[in-house]
Design a protein that fits this description.
Layout lengths: L5 H9 L4 H38 L6 H32 L4 H6 L1 H28 L7 E4 L2 E8 L3 E5 L5 E5 L6 E3 L5 E9 L5 H18 L6 E11 L4 E9 L4 H18 L19
Antiparallel strand pairs: 1-2, 1-5, 2-3, 3-4, 6-8, 7-8
Length: 289
């Protein structure tokens, strides 16, 4: 079809549109979006208020109970928000298409939709299993598929870890395969200290036992349980290895190990006990003329 000018073309195509109908639909969409946002915020506020009351109740006594309550709150918030958004999306869609007719012919696109929704459904189901099996909770220090950090959030679709350097590791719940939870108990570390063969090994053990008592008194936040000297754990080429085992909170295991090693070295040096180390001896032999 040919038109004499642009105005003729505009006039021809605009006759198929009803400006009043378009205005009503656009207005309905805007009002619906505003209502969805308000309902979502109110629902999240109600969930937060409910779980804050529950956290302060007499039924929540231990730290484990607090973690479980906060984890459940995160999960419920996610599901409530997703449900409200889905309802809002379908409502907006109904302004432009017949939802009943769309559902009637949905069989044509079921396969395509199922492939697209498979990952989402898998994440949702995995999130439920994480929550109900209590594999880990918000605040736990865990390692997920090689990435270690504190659980910051468990949502309906994904889990967020805060790593030691402050970065966030976000993984879909359906992609989580291997989990190591370090927060179910204290984490044990063994520090090995080597003393020279010429030294009195029993005296060195006594010095380290006295050190363990002081470490528990000085750093109770690092060592909830007093470190223990295991005795001689190995005979190395350069000296006798003495092991010290300590139990620390998961987030403190590295600093606890390093602090214990540092003070063990200083205690042995202060007691005059030699710690062997590699030495290089250079002999300068003058040549005879």
């Amino acid at each position: 079809m040919r038109f004499q000018n642009v105005l003729d073309a505009i006039a021809y195509y605009t006759k198929f549109f009803n400006p009043e109908e378009i205005f009503i639909k656009v207005g309905s969409v805007i009002v619906t979006i505003v209502i969805v946002i308000i309902i979502n915020r109110l629902a999240v506020a109600v969930v937060n208020y409910y779980y804050k009351l529950k956290e302060r109740s007499k039924f929540v006594k231990t730290e484990w109970d607090i973690k479980q309550t906060r984890t459940t709150a995160n999960m419920v918030r996610s599901f409530v928000s997703i449900s409200i958004l889905i309802v809002g999306f379908l409502t907006v869609l109904s302004y432009f298409v017949d939802i009943g007719a769309l559902l009637a012919v949905a069989g044509v696109g079921t396969l395509a939709i199922s492939f697209g929704a498979k990952a989402i459904i898998e994440d949702l189901i995995s999130g439920f299993f994480i929550l109900f099996d209590k594999e880990f909770l918000v605040g736990d220090y865990v390692e997920i598929d090689g990435e270690a950090g504190r659980v910051e959030k468990i949502g309906a679709k994904s889990t967020t870890l805060k790593e030691i350097d402050g970065s966030r590791y976000i993984v879909s719940n359906g992609k989580i395969t291997n989990v190591i939870n370090y927060s179910r108990d204290y984490r044990q570390r063994i520090v090995s200290v080597t003393v020279a063969y010429e030294e009195d090994t029993q005296r060195a053990i006594t010095v380290l036992k006295d050190l363990c008592v002081r470490m528990r008194e000085t750093y109770p936040h690092l060592y909830p349980v007093e470190p223990q000297v295991l005795g001689v754990t190995d005979l190395e080429s350069s000296g006798v290895s003495i092991g010290i085992i300590s139990e620390t909170l998961p987030e403190n295991f590295r600093i606890g190990e390093n602090t214990l090693r540092l003070h063990a070295k200083e205690a042995l040096v202060a007691a005059g006990i030699e710690i062997p180390y590699d030495r290089v001896v250079v002999i300068n032999q003058s040549q005879k003329g």
